[in-house]
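Provenance

Sequences were taken from public entries as deposited. Structures were produced by running a predictor on each sequence independently, with no templates supplied. The record for PqqD family protein from Aurantiacibacter xanthus is shown for reference.
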Amino acid sequence: MNSGDSSAMYRRCEDLVVCDLDGGSALLDLNTSTYFKLNGTASFIWEKLGDQPMDADMLAEELIKVYDVEKAVCLPDIQYVLNELATANLITDQP
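Predicted structure for PqqD family protein:
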C-alpha cells in the first residue's frame, strides 16, 4: 500500500457503516467492531472517496473548491489523512 503517496488512487473499503455527526462522521468497521470518528475535513475526504477512486491531488482540487485554502497548504494534510485511513484499513489503494 502506498499510504500517503500523492499518486496512489484510493477507494473506501467495504463493510463499514457511516453515521453523520455534527461537524464530522462516525465509522464502524463491521469486521473489527472498531469505531472511528472523523472531523469535518476527514469526512469531506471520506465522502469524496465514495464518488470514485481519487488520489491526494484530486482530493486537494476538490477541497480548494469548498474551503479557502491553497493546494500547497492542504496537500500534506490530505496525505496525512489518507495515511491514517489506510493504516486503519478504512481505505485501500485502487488496483
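The chain has one domain: 13-88.
The chain has three helices and five strands.
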